[in-house]
């Protein structure tokens, strides 16, 4: 049975990483005729955006699994008088799913990132997991023509898990528009994860991840993210307003 709490009106699953992995694996066992499950990983920035983007808000709440991707979401739950077991980052969830599927138990399709980057990500994964079942991949720079081709290829391959890394909210809106037409068991939004796997972007050291400072590490790597980071204090303001101002 699904147990959730709400942050700014968006449902977040009360699960640790192991629980989230098990939930996704259950999705991949469902009947092929069932509607594909949507898996999203809201962070503070996305939740702040959803507060003023009704379409994104509705998409996040339509998901069958929404994990707390960011220490800000965990802290927000505490402010609201609730508790999340831990932060469940989308990248960590994806890594665990890939490791649990290393013998080919489940098939994957990778969609997203720049041309060439997703190719390198797939190559790196195949070196690390030689038996990983990757049914296909394509970059995320889509137009009307190649979107139709990609959707057709996905439906021909019928992967268990479709991983979409286009960044928020593009990836969520892409799936909202197309998921009902796709022959997959589940679709999972993974943001910039392909860039990390391809070696284009470094992830924060483990101690910074545990300290909730991964956002700072990313900002130091990519100063152009400063404008996006302004969503964080706005998120804090929204949470405090929601908690204390009725």
Automatic annotation (TrEMBL):
Q: Which reaction does it catalyse?
A: UDP-N-acetyl-alpha-D-mannosamine + N-acetyl-alpha-D-glucosaminyl-di-trans,octa-cis-undecaprenyl diphosphate = N-acetyl-beta-D-mannosaminyl-(1->4)-N-acetyl-alpha-D-glucosaminyl di-trans,octa-cis-undecaprenyl diphosphate + UDP + H(+)
What does the record give under GO molecular function? N-acetylglucosaminyldiphosphoundecaprenol N-acetyl-beta-D-mannosaminyltransferase activity
Q: Which keywords does this chain's UniProt record carry?
A: Cell wall biogenesis/degradation, Glycosyltransferase, Teichoic acid biosynthesis, Transferase
The EC class name is transferase
Pathway connected to this protein: Cell wall biogenesis; teichoic acid biosynthesis
Q: Which family does it belong to?
A: Belongs to the glycosyltransferase 26 family. TagA/TarA subfamily.
Q: Please give the name of this protein.
A: N-acetylglucosaminyldiphosphoundecaprenol N-acetyl-beta-D-mannosaminyltransferase
Q: Which organism is it from?
A: Halanaerobium salsuginis
